[in-house]
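Figure 2 data, in text form.
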Amino acid sequence: MKVSSFGEKLTQKTGILELMDDLGKAMSTHKHMLLLGGGNPAHIPEIDALWRKRWQEIADNSDELERMLGNYTTPQGDDLFIRTVVDFFKRNYQWQITPRNVTILGGSQTTFFFLFNMLAGKFPDNTKKKILLPLAPEYIGYADQGITEDMFVSYQPTIEYLEDHTFKYHVNFQDLNMTDVGAICVSRPTNPTGNVLTDDEVAKLHMLAKEHDVPLIVDNAYGAPFPNILFTEVTPFWDDQIIYVLTLSKIGLPSIRTSIVIANEEITEKLTSVNAIVSLSTGTVGQHLVMPYLANDEILKIGTDIIRPFYQKKAQEAIALFHQYMQGSNVPYYLHKSEGSLFLWLWCKDLPITSYELYQRLKKRDVIVVPGKYFFPGLQSDWRQKDECLRITYSSQDEEVVRKGLQIIAEEVKKAYA
């Protein structure tokens, strides 16, 4: 069957398709697989109990369940939920926003598809714009979202070496070129590395965005104020130059597919128009579930007191285990400093094989990770590190699975160098 250019672009084999296919097959047919590759949030007992309780409250309400399941919202989202979001950010962060600054969409992946193709690509005047990803590596799910080719441009970061086989990426501002850039986009914390851009780096990117009159998109899937999977302090910041994208996935609701966009009125109006065409309206289940916890600020305590400590403990344990399994070897390996998110980023310097080959070897031993090559969209330089890294998920499996998986990864890394 022949398909259009749009069809060809979106049906080709991609990193995100391979990742989700591997995970799906492993979960359905190979239950013994050690799944250290996905981004599914962990089932935290207190969080699962919270949503079960809230669902029961909705079911017991005289008409809320019927309204939640049986009524369309506007393409912008549920009016009451939008007002609740506005009040939350005004009350806690003094953001000067109104309901016209907020749009509710069907998850972050859909949101970024809308944003990227609206702000970059081919324009009616035949000019072309790109999305600048100032800190490579970046999220695997961005890479194939552009309908037009060469949607992204990114640059090698600078590297800060820390003690105990640890390092940290920083934005290399000297190399950034704003020519033909339609928007700047960063994830904070960064998926895949767990890196958190400093407040100073965000301020400099904001200044660049203002100077060139382009939006700065902040992907807040793991960040503040919720779910707050941050192991370092940051200051949430917004003005009308910034597009702030939040999601309900990492507070334990990934299947709800609900995202919150806070932007200037022109952006939210256009997103609402796109949403009306593509989705008609946005699902209301996530909005109804979360609304009271935004209204009473309980969502801040949920992140700070339950979600963040859970993942921070998991991260510390996984890092200690991997160092233990690599002890005594002369392998030049480094883990990115864990500052947030759900992942460890392993860099095997001068790896004798590619990370994709290492990924295949691990898969034969029933360990699923993600090879690093998929996390560098738009990077033109021939940087060897693209083939020397793995993303490892430490968070969503039980301790025994993580322990065994990390042990096998360490064994295969050492074998590769040997």
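Caption note: The mean pLDDT is 93.
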